[in-house]
Amino acid sequence: MNMTAPISQSVRSPVLVRARNVHKSYGQHEVLKGIDLDVRVGETIVILGPSGSGKSTFLRCINHLETMQGGSIVVGDEQVGYQMRGGKLYRASPGVMARQRKDIGMVFQQFNLYPHLTVLQNITEAPIGVHGEKRAEAEAYARALLERVGLSEKESAYPRQLSGGQQQRVAIARALAIKPKLMLFDEPTSALDPELVGEVLATMRDLATQGLTMIVVTHEIGFAKEAADRVIFMDDGKIVEEGSPEQVLVNPTQPRTRAFLNRFI
Amino acid sequence: MKGSTVSNMTTAEVGSDGGSGPSWNPRDVSRAITSVNYLRWLLIVVVLALVAQFLSLVVSNETFQWDVVLRWLFDPSVISGLYVTLGLTVVAMVLGTAIGLVLAICRLSQSRAASSFAAVYIWFFRGTPMLVQLIFWYNMATIFPQLSISIPFGPTLINWETNAIITPLTAAIVGLALNEAAYMAEVIRGGLLSVDPGQSETAQAFGMTRSRALWRIIIPQAMRSIVPPTGNQLISMIKGTSLVSVIAMNDLLYSVQAVYNRTFEIIPLLMVAVIWYLVITSILNVGQTFIERYYARGERNNQMRGPQEVAMPVEEAR
Ligand SMILES: Nc1ncnc2c1ncn2[C@@H]1O[C@H](COP(=O)(O)OP(=O)(O)OP(=O)(O)O)[C@@H](O)[C@H]1O
Ligand SMILES: [Mg+2]
Q: Which residue numbers delimit the ABC transporter domain (chain A) (predicted)?
């Protein structure tokens, strides 16, 4: 909605996500080796990097789907998964954690729609069940979102009756339905046939221009160029390079970034 | 052989290159005729003959005494036995499923204590004969004359006479339900495990509490693999209730036994029981089919809808 240039807008806006020295390992295998990142309100961050570099793991640490071993991530004014009481940090109870996640939408590589619910029910499930919205309101908003992703006529279909691209657009509508402050996308187009990628990316580009704060893990360099305010290149559990799309994608300074980008030319 | 394949390929290539299609005229498939499968018809004839043979044996055999069967089929004592069997089945199954659900959740929970408790429970109740368990519950009073709720090694809070609580009816219900719970726990656990882990992760990411995710997301999907074995369980439960006749519960089997102990018409009265058991299980089978169809909704090749409806799900739902 706000048509001012994204970067100038985001430089002034407050920090929504602040990650500091995030460490995560699976057993002996260290996957994240100290990640620092600030994401400002309204920014679109694209995370690039080779397979196994820890992109998904970092994204999942943000909404505490993974427990990290060190460092901190603050979303808004809370550490998701933890609770401050009397100056000490406690692990949050499941109820508190559920509340902390209410403002964070997530879109998965494999869509993960609820197959036993219709498209409309998929979208209204969290607004009604978690956020306590009235059914009529939730459904009206869900229909508006379906129209936005171009799937109005599919509200009564079941997910398995839709194509992959349609399913992912429903998944995006489902994540938007909770009116999130932050959207996390984990390779939203990787499970799609090439001709279906475009429709999903177009939807995401719309969201980026409308000022939603998004962190997108993707291999779509084109999307990063057009829609990202900032591109992060990760390799081997660390942020190797970070900057505007031109800096990272056109004039990378790090040899590893160049080697990675060469594969896409 | 080889030559003909090669020549076919060449025709096809010529066809696609020249755009003229195959040399023969393709017909519209809507006119396609299903050819007769003689083997299948033969099988039907053989099966029908066998069934007819079996029926004529059963009907003409004097020992079945069909007139006696008919006389007792709707006798009030038999019908009341039927009600006892049905009532016991329903109550024991409902309790067993509820306890089984709790056990399955315990078994899958992160908590060591809960998971070991459920494992030991399932191990014990599946590992000992139903009959022994029933007799044990029935004779509780001789083992524990008093039942009480107390703090271990501490004061007693409430106290009952065991005999006042454990009647044949309660012994039967408790015995059947606790035993059923062990089996249902495993059925339900299998169902919960069959659901894609991504589903509970998604529910979690959307801020759903564990219990809501279980009720709204996981269990409805698990039902697809829970229902068929539960149908099995229910049917063995109906027949399993006949065991309670040993603790003097007058269920269906017990009431026909009571009759033939007087009249010595053993075979026809057993036939009465058999007919009723078959009637109940047939009704259950039909019910199960409908339940399975309900939980199969949302499947791509759902048998409930025709192919056209799959193509237009929006029309179908309105
Ligand atoms: N549950 C797990 N247990 C053990 N190791 C894991 C687990 N999940 C991920 N890993 C490891 O962590 C590393 C980082 O995984 P991650 O999924 O974050 O990579 P990624 O950057 O998202 O890769 P991709 O582009 O292929 O999705 C990989 O080496 C992977 O093998
Ligand atoms: Mg990944």
A: 17-261
Amino acid at A213: T
The secondary structure of chain A in percent helix, strand, coil, rounded to multiples of 5, reads 40, 25, 35
Q: How far is the CA of A101 from the centre of ligand 2 (A)?
A: 20
A63 CA to centre of own chain: 10
* A101 within 8 A of B207, measured Cβ to Cβ: yes
Atom of ligand 1 nearest to the CA of A54: 18
pLDDT of residue B143: 79
A132: left (phi over 0), alpha (psi -120 to 50) or beta: left
The amino acid at A262:
N
Q: Which helix (H) or strand (E) holds B111?
A: none
Instruction: Give me the count of residues in chain B.
Output: 318
Compare B5 and A102 and report the one with higher pLDDT.
Answer: A102
Q: How far apart are CA A66 and CA A62, in angstroms?
A: 8
**Reported ipTM:** 0.87
- Around ligand 1, the residues with Cβ closer than 6 Å are A 26, 29, 31, 49, 51-57, 187
* Domain map (residue ranges) of chain A: 109-180
pTM above 0.90, yes or no: no
Pairwise CB contact (< 8 Å): B205 & A155:
no
Per-residue model confidence (pLDDT) at position A11 = 58
Q: Provide the CB-side half-sphere exposure for A91 (13 A, CA).
A: 5
pLDDT confidence tier of residue B304, bands split at 50, 70 and 90: very low
| A234 three-class SS | strand
Query: Across the interface, do A158 and B205 touch by the CB < 8 Å criterion?
Result: no
The structure tokens listed for B293 are: 């169809």
Q: How far apart are the first and last CA of chain A?
A: 34
Model confidence at B305, pLDDT cuts 50, 70, 90, reads very low
Query: Minimal Cα distance from B199: which residue of A?
Result: A112
Where b means 16+ CB within 10 Å and e means fewer, A236-251 reads ebbbbbbeebeebbee
User: Strand runs (DSSP E) across chain B, as ranges?
Assistant: 146-150, 156-161
